[in-house]
Design a protein that fits this description.
This protein is an alpha/beta fold. About 40% of the residues lie in helices and about 15% in strands. The strands form 2 sheets. The chain has a 6-stranded mixed beta sheet, sandwiched between helices. It has a two-stranded antiparallel sheet with strand order 5-6. Keywords: DNA-binding, Phosphoprotein, Sigma factor, Transcription, Transcription regulation.
């Protein structure tokens, strides 16, 4: 994996969100790197075509990894799972946008899924959201989720759905607790209950991104309800209503 000269000196890159790009097509690497270079908060510190090289050099500490799901003719789901288990933030970046593929990547631990045709704006927004542990739903991802209605959709209570929605929007369980006027422990219980219900339905959602995928897929949360991060700790926001 090569150090990226566009990223500049280490002192400059240290103040920005560091990104590693793993793709076996040099033209894609150069294109994505040029997109990310338009955002001053991002610094591409390494590029390459082998996930194993993420263990070395500047890529070893990159805050976000943009990983092509198909490398050298093989799907890289095992690498997604391995990197995610090691605590790395992996954004899967692929031309394979079938719903089964998207959910498999999220179930493997990816924090986000981005289609290669999405373009610069969605690429930059997805990486920024991933670095902040925020969900971001590009159009193709939203379409894949909303396009399916499964009969094994779990029944969530109004409180569980509201806790999920506010957690997806605000990141902090503490701010969700303040908004709902309950304890942080109760918020965690609501989120854990939702995960348990999905696991019992045979559709596990171990990560925040996977849980968001399930909720959107089942119509419990609408993609437009996620949006850009804002604080919802204030008490003047109307309680979210269950979609009809």
């Amino acid at each position: 994996m090569d150090a990226d000269p566009v990223a500049g000196g280490m002192s400059q890159a240290a103040q920005r969100i560091t990104v590693a790009i793993v793709d076996d097509h040099p033209v894609v690497v150069e294109g994505v790197r040029s997109w990310l270079a338009t955002e001053p908060r991002l610094a591409v510190v390494a590029t390459g075509d082998d996930p194993d090289l993420l263990r070395h050099g500047a890529a070893r500490t990159a805050q976000v990894i943009l990983l092509d799901l198909r490398l050298h003719g093989r799907m890289a789901l095992d690498q997604v799972a391995e990197l995610s288990a090691a605590g790395r933030r992996v954004v899967v970046y692929s031309e394979h946008t079938e719903q089964e593929t998207i959910l498999a990547a999220l179930d493997a631990g990816a924090v986000a899924f981005l289609a290669k045709h999405e373009g610069r704006e969605h690429c930059v927004r997805t990486v920024l959201a991933a670095a902040d542990d925020r969900p971001y739903v590009p159009p193709s991802l939203a379409g894949a989720f909303v396009g399916d209605r499964r009969s094994d959709r779990p029944a969530l209570s109004d409180q569980e759905r509201e806790a999920l929605l506010l957690w997806f929007q605000s990141m902090s369980k503490a701010s969700v607790a303040r908004r709902m006027r309950i304890s942080e422990h109760t918020v965690k219980q609501y989120l854990d209950r939702a995960r348990i219900k999905y696991a019992r339905a045979g559709r596990p959602a171990a990560t925040k991104a996977a849980l968001l995928a399930r909720a959107i897929e089942d119509g419990l949360v609408r993609p437009e309800e996620i949006g850009t991060y804002r604080s919802y700790a204030s008490t003047d926001r109307p309680t979210p209503q269950r979609p009809s």
